[in-house]
């Protein structure tokens, strides 16, 4: 950087020379002084530095926010910034037409120097990509939104990139569920101890969901259906609008934010992707529950197990046994309820049984096309 100071130095010396010669100081005089030094070859290193600085600034100004124009309800909005520096930190937000933030997530570097993502990208891209994944729930209103990326830089002002996104409507069916007295006591406990325990469990869950550790880069491929092929049947799809009918006739509408497969007790439940077990415990409403972190801010959750086969803090691979089907907690029968959490919102896990959580080939082709 010290040598970079030569430019104003050259200019100042040229100005001083002109002034000392009694000539009026005009911009031209700078050009003549510089030109003379240029002809003498004295400013060539400076030109090299200028060219380098220009290249760097051109590269940064070319930073672009990539995202699809449309995304359906119940899906992951995949977006990314390219190129970025590894010191840049990016926050992705989705704003509605009133400018209200409806989803938020911290971006993470895709070609981080470990994990499976690097192997896919290695050798094909020289720069860094920051990915932002936002969960679009089934109840997010369809219409026009703005995706905003705020890039905070270490040595310069932060930068905003925006693009419009349209959320497509998807029709979700409905069903009615009769709530038994036993289920009612789980859903609406009167015991103060039970209420306090539920609150503690809810706080524990949210502490996990807010952990978007950028080093959680375990898996970005398609999810495995949690029961082996041919086992179980879909008993309730994601997004169902459920009307609960309570004893006494009271009704409450609730949206099913998971994907249910009914199967006999004891059928093996398999990990849908590689990851870190961040929860393995018996909970009041969700019963025996396992949560797996697969990416920063992205979690898989399996509920109502009869047996948990993993421990908190252990690593699992896609297809590993994590538990057995049961009906613990608030359940109307033996089934596994699977959730996919993205930016603290639930999306449809079954949509990702056949497509990857992050489509790295698409990222590479989108970058190559620009
Ligand atoms: Zn369910």
TrEMBL record:
Chain ranges of the M23ase beta-sheet core domain: 255-349
InterPro entries, A to Z: Cell_wall_metabolism_enzyme, Dup_hybrid_motif, M23ase_b-sheet_dom
Pfam family, one: Peptidase_M23
Uppermost EC category: hydrolase
UniProt keyword Zinc, yes or no: no
EC number: 3.4.-.-
Key words of the record: Hydrolase
Superkingdom to which the source organism belongs: Bacteria
CDD domains in UniProt: M23_peptidase
GO MF term list: hydrolase activity
Protein name (database record): M23 family metallopeptidase
């Amino acid at each position: 950087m010290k040598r970079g100071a030569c430019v104003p130095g050259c200019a100042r010396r040229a100005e001083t020379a002109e002034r000392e010669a009694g000539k009026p100081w005009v911009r031209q005089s700078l050009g003549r002084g510089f030109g003379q030094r240029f002809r003498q070859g004295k400013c060539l290193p400076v030109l090299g530095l200028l060219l380098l600085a220009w290249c760097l600034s051109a590269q940064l100004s070319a930073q672009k926010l990539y995202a699809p124009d449309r995304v359906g309800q119940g899906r992951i909005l995949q977006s990314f910034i390219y190129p970025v520096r590894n010191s840049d930190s990016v926050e992705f937000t989705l704003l509605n037409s009133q400018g209200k933030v409806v989803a938020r997530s911290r971006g993470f570097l895709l070609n981080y120097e470990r994990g499976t993502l690097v192997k896919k990208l290695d050798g094909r891209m020289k720069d860094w990509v920051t990915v932002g994944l936002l969960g679009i729930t089934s109840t997010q209103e369809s219409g026009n939104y703005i995706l905003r990326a705020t890039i905070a830089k270490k040595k310069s002002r932060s930068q905003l990139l925006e693009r419009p996104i349209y959320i497509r409507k998807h029709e979700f069916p409905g069903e009615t569920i009769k709530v038994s007295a036993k289920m009612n006591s789980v859903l609406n406990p009167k015991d103060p101890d039970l209420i306090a325990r539920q609150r503690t469990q809810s706080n524990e869950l949210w502490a996990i969901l807010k952990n978007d550790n950028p080093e959680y880069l375990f898996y970005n491929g398609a999810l495995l259906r949690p029961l082996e092929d041919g086992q179980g049947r879909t008993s309730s799809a994601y997004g169902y609008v459920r009307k609960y009918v309570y004893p006494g006739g009271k009704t409450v509408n609730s949206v099913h934010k998971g994907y249910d497969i009914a199967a006999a007790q004891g059928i093996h439940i398999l990990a849908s992707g590689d990851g870190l077990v961040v929860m393995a415990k018996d909970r009041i409403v969700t019963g025996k529950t396992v949560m797996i972190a697969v990416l920063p801010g992205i979690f898989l959750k399996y509920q109502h197990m009869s047996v948990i086969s993993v421990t908190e803090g252990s690593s699992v691979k896609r297809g590993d046994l994590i538990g057995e089907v049961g009906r613990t907690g608030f359940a109307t029968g033996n089934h596994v309820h699977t959730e996919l959490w993205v930016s603290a919102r639930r999306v449809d896990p079954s949509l990702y049984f056949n497509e990857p959580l992050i489509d790295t080939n698409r990222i590479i082709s989108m970058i190559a096309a620009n």
